[in-house]
Write a structure and sequence with these properties.
Largest interface: A-B, 58 and 43 residues
Number of helices of chain A: 13
Oligomer: heterodimer
Structural class of chain B: alpha+beta
Strand content of chain B: 15-25%
Number of strands of chain A: 3
Radius of gyration of chain B: 38 Å
Strand content of chain A: under 5%
Number of domains of chain A: 2
Structural class of chain A: mainly alpha
Shape of chain B: elongated
Helix content of chain A: over 70%
Radius of gyration of chain A: 20 Å
Number of helices of chain B: 23
Distance between the termini of chain A: 19 Å
Largest sheet of chain B: 7 strands, mixed
CATH superfamily of one domain in chain B: Penicillin-binding protein 2a (Domain 2)
Shape of chain A: globular
Helix content of chain B: 25-40%
Number of strands of chain B: 23
Chain lengths: 356, 621
């Protein structure tokens, strides 16, 4: 087989989003060509990773998933003991290069849970539910302790959503939600003061406009002042005059909203909805359970990324440090995200080749 | 794959469960997506105007640009007050790499002391990091050179210039022109704050304060685009400032200098004015101070030293110094006595050196025994007894009413603040100004000494000059003033301060004036005149000396009297006698008699005036 395994609709959407990313990053970096160049290189590597990931078969991913998961767990435990601490969080480990094992788990989590559940049948029995929950919550807890609230929530979501899709009984679901809400005061006590502060700030950003509330206020100003049509590329004052912090990473959406307005961000949201829709379509059209579960987990998690990021930049959710997929500048996180889209492509393009 | 081992039925069942959940998830996606989009519509459509305003407020700063102050010139366009750039070392904390090291190298260079460093570090902590801080004011040329050579060591430091007031004539004009200082809260109560940026200085005294509203300009405005650290990225709009208006004073620098030099080492005041229009030609008060130094800002210690100096250099004696006028009131009282018919030109009185009142054990002494004198001779020789007698006949009420016609006892309304009234006493005055009942009574003896300008009577040098101009003009005068012209900067127009004539004594018989003029001429030009010999022979000058006692003493004289108890010397005079052009009043505190202390100063003033007189006439045409 000499043909490249690529899903053209997804590929076009990713390239469109990458173009938007380049435009946004150039503006957010105060027109720094060097910054743009390094970002383009990083986008290129990510797309390459996506294409490479698309070439392996779903069977391959199913087979390596336990090993990948095991490696992730070991690395997370290693981080717990030997990790590098930056900004009060121990997330990095140095194995030749310094990286966050939690990023790798973004790929491993959907694969392992999908594999475990697909090895049995759905709807799940109670033992399988408990076993799947352990698979999900063990690394989640480790990441939560780093602490990295945003990533742990997203990784937990990518696993839990598979359990949900596998037809868990509705009363379990409701009792789980009730249990979670009941545990909230306890969770509140276990999270770090700076995380508590973020939530409090989210509830009332104007209480500390120059301190904790600053990010969210400036971001809302940027978005709202964009209006219908935006201030024009490179003309956004909030971004160009540095009022908006972290605008190449977590707050890049505010840059786009300020400079391209509601029209511009609706275009970007429609790219995202297209990718998610395409992913779900791939899941529905898959012939086997593993592919279905893995593809839908990747797609729904992708959507949650978008939702959480836009939600936090527009003041709908607390600031949890989640980048905007495909657009924010970010080395490993964009790499793993693109790789997961590559797996999505693989699940789609290889299915007819699987012998029945 | 694993699925291959599942039955078709199981596969179908799994598929339907899964599809069910995918449909549910799709609804959830639409719901959450709708939530996000509604939120964005809320922010970007409904709240857009409010948030746009906040984004504009984030980035726009309005900065005021101070306007240069108008200049002050004397009547011959000699500069009295100007603006000079002064250099200061400023620093923007966020641009300084290592504050400690930079400040230390400034001490090594001898620019700062160790103590100054501590206060600077404190100010840096309290200041915005992007805002400039003044590290050292008033750099001299050597310091500027040192700083320029070590620019590389001092990243974030910069030499900035600002305009400060400079008075090239130094102490000579200090009291009449005044000085500048930082704007205080009370200044803003008097002057409209919209004319100030807060960075400039404001007129604190005298002409600088009186004509603050003319001298100050209107500040300009700059609308600036700033980034989050407040650094200016762009200038969006600029309204230029308008420079303050220049003013031209009536003062003549040559007369002013002559007065100051003649009074060097003394305490006192000289006032010269033009009786034809009320223009003040010279006004000095000594000792004086350096108005440039005060405007640059004195340290507290320097200011305290100036303020507590016993010789009171900050005090403007010309308008606020109140002195017993002594014998300088004699020409006025002589005129009154003639007008009231108490004496006539042929009336001679024999002075035996003292004057007695019934029921007074001690006689009122005269400084000399004058023999037989008429009005002219009494003025010429300053015979006290003659005036004692006239005073008693006149009575204090008539005397005080007549002296008030010379504007004594009230302000001249010159264009300077803090002018004092002086005192022309009468019975009512005494009643109002003494607490104990006993002291409120008027005694005849007090009338007697009022006849020679002693006792309670007080006048400022300016009041004496003004009264003398009423004599010189034979009954009328022009209000004294210092502002001559305003040069409007925007239109180039020149506004002239018109003199206001006031009539005081228009019903006096011409021959009485002649007698007084004769007497005052004789003071200067005839033997036995109290100022005879001080002036050149046959000077066209009328004058009168005065000696006012600081402390009553019994014929102790000469050098054994402590300085602060010595008499004040006074002189009033005008010239030329017909159609006078200049009036001069001189007071020398504790300088001894009017003849020795004050008349020589007046003489130098008159001769200077004659020397420049031709030019003076040219200028006014």
């Amino acid at each position: 087989m000499h043909q490249l395994h690529i899903d053209m609709p997804l590929m076009i959407a990713v390239l469109l989003a990458s173009g938007v990313s380049a435009i946004a990053i150039f503006s957010a970096s105060n027109s720094s060509e060097n910054f743009l160049m390094s970002h383009l290189v990083s986008i290129g590597l990510s797309i390459l990773a996506m294409i490479v990931a698309a070439q392996f078969s779903p069977l391959f991913y199913s087979r390596i998933s336990p090993w990948l998961y095991a490696v992730c767990l070991i690395l997370l435990i290693a981080v717990f003991f030997y990790g590098e601490t930056r900004n009060n969080a121990t997330r990095w480990i140095d194995i030749g290069i310094s990286f966050q094992p939690s990023e790798l788990l973004k790929i491993a989590m959907p694969l392992i849970v999908a594999r475990y559940i697909a090895s049995g049948s759905i709807p799940l029995n109670n033992i399988n539910i408990v076993a799947s929950l352990i698979l999900v919550l063990l690394p989640t807890a480790l990441i939560f302790k780093q602490p990295d609230l945003g990533t742990s929530v997203l990784i937990a979501f990518s696993g839990l959503v598979i359990i949900f899709l596998s037809g868990i009984k509705k009363r379990y679901l409701f009792s789980a939600i009730t249990l979670f809400l009941g545990c909230l005061p306890f969770i509140w006590k276990t999270i770090h003061p700076f995380q508590q502060q973020r939530v409090l700030t989210f509830l009332d950003p104007e209480s500390d406009p120059l301190g904790a509330g600053y990010h969210i206020i400036q971001s809302k100003i940027a978005i709202g002042s964009g209006g219908l049509f935006g201030k024009g590329w490179l003309n956004g004052t909030q971004g160009q005059l540095d009022f908006l912090p972290e605008r190449t990473t977590d707050f890049i959406f505010s840059i786009l909203a300020e400079e391209f307005g509601l029209i511009g961000v609706l275009f970007i949201i429609s790219i995202y909805l297209f990718i998610v829709g395409r992913g779900l379509l791939i899941a529905i059209n898959s012939d086997d359970l593993f592919s279905r579960l893995a593809a839908s987990s990747i797609s729904l998690t992708f959507f949650i990324y978008v939702f959480v990021n836009i939600g936090m930049t527009s003041g709908l959710l607390p600031v949890v440090g989640v980048p905007l997929p495909l657009i924010s500048k970010g080395g490993t996180s964009s790499l793993t995200l693109m790789a997961s889209l590559g797996i999505l492509m693989s699940l789609h393009t290889h299915k007819r080749l699987i012998p029945k | 794959m694993i699925d291959n081992f599942k039955t078709k039925q199981t596969q179908e069942a799994e598929r339907s469960v899964f599809l069910n959940r995918i449909i549910f998830s799709s609804f959830a996606i639409l719901l959450l997506g709708g939530l996000i989009i509604s939120r964005l519509i809320y922010l970007m459509v409904i709240e857009s105007d409010a948030l746009s305003l906040r984004s504009v407020n984030n980035t726009l700063r309005t900065q005021s640009i101070p306007a240069p102050r108008g200049l002050i010139f004397d009547r011959n366009n000699e500069v009295i007050a100007e603006n000079k750039p002064k250099f200061q070392l400023e620093m923007i904390p966020e641009q300084v790499n290592q504050l400690d090291n930079s400040l230390l190298s400034l001490t090594d260079l001898g620019i700062l002391s160790k103590d100054e460093i501590i206060t600077i570090e404190e100010r840096v902590r309290k200041n915005y990091q992007f805002k400039s801080i003044v590290v050292k004011r008033n750099l001299n040329e050597r310091e500027i050179a040192i700083l320029a050579n070590n620019r590389m060591l001092l990243k974030g430091f910069d030499i900035k210039s600002r305009l400060t007031r400079n008075y090239p004539q130094n102490e000579i004009y200090a009291h009449v022109v005044g000085y500048m200082g930082s704007i205080s809260k009370s200044d803003y109560e008097r002057f409209d704050p919209s004319f100030y940026t807060g960075k400039e200085q404001i007129g604190k005294s005298a002409i600088e304060r009186e004509y603050e509203h003319i001298l100050r300009g209107a500040p300009g405005k700059r609308k600036l685009l700033v980034n989050v650290r407040g650094r200016v990225m762009d200038e969006i709009e600029k309204d230029a400032f308008s420079t303050g208006n220049d003013i031209i004073l009536t003062l003549n620098s040559e007369l002013q200098r002559t007065a100051y030099e003649s009074m060097s080492g003394k305490k006192g005041s000289v006032v010269a004015l033009d009786p034809r229009n009320g223009e003040i030609l010279a006004m000095i008060s000594v000792p004086s101070f350096d108005p440039t130094a005060i405007s640059l800002g004195l340290t507290q210690a320097e200011f305290d030293k100036l303020n507590s100096d016993k010789k009171r250099p900050l005090f403007n004696r010309a308008i606020a110094g109140q002195y017993p006028p002594g014998s300088t009131v004699k020409p006025m009282l002589a005129l009154g006595a003639l007008d009231m018919g108490i004496v006539d030109s042929e009336y001679y009185h024999t002075c035996e050196g003292e004057f007695r009142l019934p029921n007074y054990s001690r006689p009122f002494g005269d400084w000399s025994t004058h023999g037989s004198v008429n009005t002219k001779r009494a003025i010429q020789a300053s015979c006290d007894v003659y005036f004692y007698e006239s005073a008693v006949e006149m009575g204090i009420e008539r005397m005080s009413a007549f002296l008030k016609k010379f504007n004594l006892g009230k302000e001249t309304e010159i264009d300077l603040a803090s002018e004092k009234n002086g005192v022309v006493p009468n019975k009512e005055w005494k009643k109002n100004n003494f607490k104990s009942k006993q002291n409120q009574n008027w005694y005849l003896g007090e009338t007697v000494i009022a006849g020679i300008g002693q006792g309670y009577m007080l006048a400022t040098p300016l009041q004496l000059a003004y009264a003398t101009s009423i004599i010189a003009n034979k009954g009328y005068a022009y209000k004294p003033h210092i502002l001559k012209q305003i040069y409007l900067n925007d239109t180039g127009e020149i506004l002239t301060n018109e003199a206001e004539r006031t009539d005081h004594l228009m019903e006096i018989d011409q021959q009485y004036w002649d007698i007084v003029f004769d007497g005052m001429n004789a003071v200067v030009n005839e033997q036995r005149g109290t100022a005879y010999g001080v002036f050149p022979e046959n000077s066209n000058i009328a004058g009168k000396t005065g000696t006012s006692q600081v402390f009553s003493m019994d014929k102790r004289s000469g050098d054994d009297v402590p300085e602060e108890l010595r008499d004040h010397g006074l002189f009033i005079g005008f010239a030329p006698i017909n159609n006078p052009e200049i009036v001069i009043a001189v007071i020398v505190e504790n300088g001894g008699g009017g003849r020795v202390a004050a008349a020589p100063v007046a003489e130098r003033m008159f001769s200077k005036f004659l020397e420049i007189g031709g030019r003076e006439v040219d200028q006014s045409n």
